[in-house]
Amino acid sequence: MADRRARIHALLRALAAEFVAHESNRRSMITVTRVATSRDLSKATIFLTVYPEAQEKAALDFLMRKRPQLRAFIKSRAALKRIPFVEIAIDRAEKARQRLDALLLEEKEGSD
């Protein structure tokens, strides 16, 4: 079951990234970082990072409005028994990881 869930996550992530690439206005770089689903696969949360950070709210609002179109896009391209209802969220864990990487790089450069 874990392998199936991982394949579905990868499929949803790729389709969401393709949808964002086609639908975004190019004023910000939106990256689909990961997907989480409910146990029964009826709900999916698509996590994003947005650069520049000042455009986060606009990108999130845009994609929240486009959720029905995103779900239809997934339905048209994925052979899934049940198409999940989609939620969109900013990936705070990825932002924290990037911040830690930057701090570690600063520390390393400072010790050299």
Features of this protein?
112 residues; alpha+beta; GMP Synthetase, Chain A, domain 3; three-stranded mixed β-sheet; 4 helices; 3 strands; 56% helix
Q: Can you describe this structure in just a few lines?
A:
The chain has 112 residues and is α+β, with helices and mostly antiparallel strands. It contains four helices and three strands, in the order αββααβα. α1 packs across α3.
Number of helices: 4
User: How many runs of DSSP E, i.e. beta strands?
Assistant: 3
Helix content: 55-70%
Mean pLDDT: 90
- Secondary-structure element order, as H and E? HEEHHEH
Broad shape: globular
Proportion in β-strands: 15-25%
Please, what is the CATH homologous superfamily?
K homology (KH) domain
Oligomer: single chain
Q: How many domain units?
A: 1
Query: Could you describe the largest sheet, including whether it forms a barrel?
Result: 3 strands, mixed
Strand order of the largest sheet: 1-2-3
The radius of gyration is 16 Å
Fold-level CATH name = GMP Synthetase, Chain A, domain 3
By secondary-structure content and strand pairing, the structural class works out as alpha+beta
Q: What is the CATH class?
A: Alpha Beta
Low-confidence parts? none
Termini distance? 47 Å
For the record, the CATH architecture stands as 2-Layer Sandwich
Describe the structure.
The protein is of the alpha+beta class and 112 residues long. The protein is built from four helices and three strands; from the N terminus they run αββααβα. It has a single domain (2-111), classed as 2-Layer Sandwich (GMP Synthetase, Chain A, domain 3). It has a three-stranded mixed β-sheet, sandwiched between helices. A hairpin with a 5-residue loop joins strand 1 and strand 2. The chain is globular. It starts with a helix and ends with a helix. The mean pLDDT is 90.
